[in-house]
Write a structure and sequence with these properties.
By secondary structure, the protein is mostly helical. The protein has helices spanning 2-16, 22-40, 61-76, 82-98, 126-142, 147-157, 161-165, 193-201, 257-274, 316-320, 327-345, 368-382, 385-390, 394-403, and strands at residues 59-60, 102-103, 106-107, 110-111, 124-125, 174-176, 180-181, 219-222, 225-228, 291-294, 297-300, 346-347, 350-351, 355-356, 361-362. The chain is globular.
């Protein structure tokens, strides 16, 4: 299947780019190269997808969710044959139903690529389970009326969401068999909106809709940009839920979370412009501070407002994942990174994870979640495909009805 995929991609890319505008060509390439990650860094026997391109990397449950969605995007653009995309999605879903261990329907964060078993003493992760389920449900909706849809629905319906509340009104971040529930909860604005949406919208084991109102919504500003913010300041927290959920016409009182992410993106970029004298990596076309690899390992970089950590590291996925929120700034930033740094920063799966001019450091790896947010958010900007399919899900409609009384639909 991989050989067919690669051949089809080469033929499509060679014949289509010359008919597109320069920007369309560039976006084609970013998505095309990114989708290759989810094909080539997967186990052909079981469909599990590596957390990172590093040799020996385990599977990341979240990367598998992004991968299920990216595979469908590849089919929609003619880069993967329909049957190949379908059977790859089916293989992943069967592995998660039959082989991967779960606790009350929740999955461990990291899995052995060969066996699907827990590795690194990782936790049963509520958010990573939600990101996998988002991809699974999207794939089921994309291949509606098939076995893939039934598998995705079954995996989703077995999740016991109230169990992860652990008797509280907000969801716990995870659980370990050795120590029980973690002492951390999704109790403030973060990437967890999709987790709450799926938990509230469940037809089998829902949590009360009142839980949606229980997490804090802190408000602060950076310069003229006022927003409900995540305390880390990492830009992925304003992107991940939006990779599948279309918030543009959903209102919580006067709050619109799409507009909130627009403000967060603009604040992040302005923060980098304002600190360009301190860090030479930063600038008007080099921004998007987020969690990513860095010179000292994986770190949660961020911008104000929030408790931002900085050392001059920029992940291109922070810019690419912002495409729907500020397309001009995102396009300009990505093109500038490509033109100025492609020899060190761009490779077989698109942009490598991050770079730091101040420390002359360049990542050699790709992270599945960062490649994934790049592919998905560019597609939402270009066609709205992911949003369109995901918003048709019964679970999402239930969540909207329960939590957005003055919604615009």
């Amino acid at each position: 299947m991989k050989r067919f995929f690669l051949a089809a991609c080469v033929i499509f890319f060679a014949t289509s780019v010359f008919a597109s505008s320069a920007d369309e060509q560039f976006l084609d390439r970013l998505q095309y190269d990114g989708i290759l990650y989810f094909v080539k860094e997967s186990n052909p026997a079981n469909g599990l997808i590596k957390d990172s391109s590093r040799l020996g990397s385990p599977c990341s449950v979240a990367a598998a969710g992004f991968g299920l969605t990216a595979i469908c995007i590849g089919e929609s653009r003619g880069w993967i044959a329909k049957d190949d995309a379908y059977y790859l999605a089916l293989k992943i879903l069967k592995t998660f139903r039959d082989t991967v261990p779960n606790e009350k329907g929740f999955f461990y964060h990291f899995l052995d690529m060969r066996t699907g078993q827990r590795v690194w003493s990782s936790e049963v992760s509520s958010i990573d389970t939600a990101l996998f389920l988002a991809g699974a449900l999207f794939a089921g909706e994309y291949f509606k009326g098939t076995e893939a849809e039934a598998l995705a629905r079954g995996i989703y319906e077995r999740v016991d969401w109230p169990w992860m509340l652990n008797g509280k009104s907000v969801l716990c971040m995870g659980w370990k068999p050795e120590e029980g529930f973690l002492p951390y909860y999704w109790d403030s604005y973060s990437e967890a909106m999709i987790l709450y949406a799926l938990a509230i919208g469940s037809s089998t084991h829902p949590i009360p809709p009142e839980c949606w109102s229980e997490w804090k919504r802190p408000v602060d500003s950076y310069k003229e940009h006022k927003l409900i913010y995540c305390t880390t300041g990492s830009i992925f927290t304003y992107q991940y839920s939006h990779a599948w959920i279309d918030f543009r016409e959903l209102y919580e009182g006067d709050t619109n979370y799409f507009s909130n992410s627009v403000s967060a993106v603009k604040a992040n970029r302005q923060f980098c412009i304002d600190n360009s004298d301190t860090y030479k990596t930063y600038g008007e076309n080099s921004w998007g501070l987020s969690a990513c690899l860095g010179p000292e390992g994986y770190r949660g970089y961020g911008a104000k407002p929030g408790d931002a950590f900085n050392d001059g590291t920029i992940p291109p996925s922070g810019i690419a994942g912002s495409m729907p929120f500020d397309p001009i700034a995102s396009m300009n930033g990505l093109k500038r990174l490509y033109v100025e740094h492609k020899d060190f920063l761009y490779g077989k799966y698109g942009f490598k994870d991050a770079f730091n001019l101040d420390k002359n450091w360049w990542a050699e790896e790709y992270l599945g979640i960062d490649v994934g947010i790049t592919v998905l958010m560019i597609e939402n900007y270009r066609s709205g495909l992911v949003w369109g399919k995901f918003m048709e899900l019964t679970a999402i409609k239930k969540w909207i009805l329960r939590c957005f009384s003055n919604k615009v639909m």
